[in-house]
Amino acid sequence: MKENKILKLIHIAWRERWSDSQFGINIKNVLPRGVSGDVYNLADSILQQALIGSTANPLVLNYLKHSLCAHLVSHAAVLRRIAKYEHFERLYCTTSLLDFLDSVIAGVTCRAKTEEAILPGALVSLINWLMQVFAMITAHYEIHRELNSEQSYMLGQCCLVIEKVIKNQFLMAIIYVGCHEDPDYYGQIRERYAAIKTSLTNSNFNPTHPSIEAYLHQLAYVDVHHLDMPLLDIQPKPEPVTYCVQPLLTVDVLLNPCNDTSYYVAKIQMVQRLKKFSNTRLFYEIVRAGFVSLSNVMETTHDTMWGAFTFFKVPQIIKQLQALNRAVGEQTPNDYIPEVVEAIELLLEDKLLLDFMDSKCSCNIIEYLLNDWTKQHLVNDMHVKHFAAQREGTSVLLQKRDASTQAPSIINFIIRAEVPLSGVLKTLSTDYNKVQEALLGVLCQVLVGNSFDLILSVATVEGRLKTFVSRLILCNENSKQVPGEMGKASIIRSTLFDVSFLMLTFIVQTYGSDAVLSNNGDSFFEKWVRECMVERNKPKNPRNMIVMCDENMVDELLLNLSKPEPQLKNINITWQDVCLNLPGVLYQVLIAWEKETLSSADVKNILDNIKRRLFSFSVCATSFLCAYMCSVKENELLKPLNMIQQFLAPPSAEEMSSQENIKERLGLSFQIIRKLQHDVRPTVNPKSRSITLVQNLVSQTPLMDQFRDVWRTVNENGWLPIRAAQILESLLHAGGAAWLTTRLLEEILKCKYIHDMMKTMDIVFAILHLDIELSTEALLTQVVPAMIQNRQGEDIDEPHLHVLARLCVYCIISAVETRHYTNFSYQKKRSRSHDGDDMDLNNTVKMRKINTDSSDNSSSNDFLGDSNLFNTHASTHLRNTPNQLKESLQNSIQYIFKIFQQFLQTDKLSLKVYFVYQFVSLLVECGQERVRLVLNLLPTNLINNLLKVMLTDQISVGLIARLYDLRTSCGRQAAVADLTLWRNLKLKEQSIHL
């Protein structure tokens, strides 16, 4: 009924030649109050009457324009109706519609929710209609090779409308949303564009509009990159000096030395995306980070670890990065990587660092490094000669130094350690019964000097540490005591048991049991580690150890050990049983000593008898005593401490000569015992280098003083020394993630200049990777909200807020990706996690070296050959984003978004509101699609409220379009709602200026 009245009114208006305002007044009498004309197809009715004849009725079209201005009809309804017009042979009607579009297209918007729902589809339909018009004209030209004046005018108007659409960011954003609604329909537009392109090519037709082909292509392949988004980068180009790569690698090598190459590659790729580094710059930073860290370390263990990392792991990291970042179809030389050559050119400019490294390593470090890289086709011989020549003068000066002052090169030992490692692995894999004596000689030789450190470093970096451990465990199992065995065979077996046990214990102490042992191993050593070995951050209950002991064995051992000269070989207890039952023995000794039923001399005699036979017994006893010390009061520590010191007392000359290979085993057992003792009660002046490997939680110095001292070192250097990383890790465990994160952010706030802020932020970001997930959660839930709410306007202002927002975004991106790239790491993260959350390693992307023979290198899991090993599947898998967030991280992100909603409960622009804008904008800018899971957590009205407070010049349609997942209907609805609000606010601003 209403539609008939509308048609009748239009006829009357035409006959009586009503003005626009007259039509508007009278049509409102027909339409119910507050109801849009779209409900009764007003736009459709007007256009039907306007396009009846061969030419369009201009007066009726003016009625439609007035209805648009008076909000009687929506733009979406009008555009959708125009897109349905198919009588292209009526040139004047089509031209009139193009003229009409030209006059209204700049003002397209929405005024109601129902209009928002149909506008994207209407605009996409309009684009298809414009393509049809253009295609009709080009097809006519292709056939007749000419256009008449009407067709030329129509083409010009079509191009003009297309240009206005392209240059209107709001329309392009709506079209971008619309192309996700019906991908099949949008596919038809692309097919139509392909036909137009073919027609233009075949006819050699050049439209008068210079850019129309580019515009058509942009409409057919509309992309989010066509939508402007102002960047918040303080430094839009990569900074000349970065302070992020070296600390990040330092933390990773400290925490995860056993991890596969792909783990490091994923983290470095994250930094590359955040910093916008080219491959050349990235490779330079990696090599420089290795040299800087290697120049700093003093302890042999870290010397060898960083040397092995720089010479063995870095080339593999570079090869994987180059393969993953290579464009499809890109051709590179077979014998070198151009970006590596360019990176070395940059490195040669850092003469002070290279001079120091040449002096420290007693060689031309560049030449030494590149000679090895030629074998891996990173550089070729010509490059080696060229770069070596540039450093030749320094090398000559180095050679002229007095030999007595020249330090031996650790690099030579590191490179040479690869061959002994393969030899040890090969020997361990042979038939145990045939090579017992030879195997004993090989293992004892490994303990001479720092060979063990070197071999462990190379095995770790090459990914062969777990193989080494598993074969040592098998050797230890085969060496368990056999009842009745006597003579030389028994001595060799016991020594093998002792050596393998000590080596395994040292490895577990260094890397952690999670990194080197399987979860459910049933060997004697694995059982002992699970039940009896005291590990850092894994305390053991001494009562559980005692409960496990066999009372009869404990009594028999006590009786035998109390004798002046015990004969353990004459009792029916094996070596492995002695190790497991020593806690019961020592507990009885401690009780008797406390009750004074045993004298100090008696206790000394028992302890001497324990360590006299096998040094493994001393280690097992010390482990129990350390666990016991953690469970008693301060005044009860003296006796167990004295007992441990007795195990560290040097044996007599007679005892030293009574056993073979005693010196090497004794030295290793002392290192293990001192480390066990230091983990529980550190000494002020540690005598053993093994003690200095890890800073302990227990310290006499207040945490704040420790932090100030270590930060002073970091700040002065501009990079993170190994020792500083160790102390910071201990502070993380002692003070907690929130405490350490707060202290680090305070250092950022102390900076007064942007350069210093960005430098400090980079170092802080790397340090937070000591536990990036916990640190990010603390940052979002405790640290940043409290700082902004409580200290705004005091010392937190711009650009501090920008730097804080950037740090938060960096941490979120890293925390989101951590679980993803841990999934294709071979080893679990050496567990610093506090929630026991095991990573899913079953779906690991493993890039193994293809090795068909049965050599020991078959266990090497990340030494890749050529880059063609990187197939498309692996590369794609590495680039995929995770499909879910860790629950605690998700809760933290939701919490800070709720805080943001509180900030936006105002109509005034403040620093808090601007921080929200920067946070959201940087999240999109830095994370892009990789933080889609985070963006999906945005509250529905957050951006809407932000738009009402912020200026539309700062919030762009490009930002809004990137915030939502347009593959879902909810995401599209939210995007259109925010885009429409942005558009209406923009129109309001323009009307105010007018």
TrEMBL record:
- Name the domain of life this protein comes from: Eukaryota
GO MF, one example: transcription coregulator activity
**What is a single Pfam family found in this protein's UniProt entry?**
Med24_N
One Gene Ontology biological process:
positive regulation of transcription initiation by RNA polymerase II
- Does Transcription appear among the keywords? yes
UniProt keyword terms in alphabetical order: Activator, Nucleus, Transcription, Transcription regulation
Q: Which GO terms describe its cellular component?
A: mediator complex
- List locations, semicolon-separated: Nucleus
PANTHER family in UniProt: MEDIATOR OF RNA POLYMERASE II TRANSCRIPTION SUBUNIT 24
Q: Which family does the record assign?
A: Belongs to the Mediator complex subunit 24 family.
What name does the UniProt record give this protein?
Answer: Mediator of RNA polymerase II transcription subunit 24
This chain's source organism reads Glossina fuscipes
Q: What gene, per UniProt, encodes this protein?
A: LOC119637781
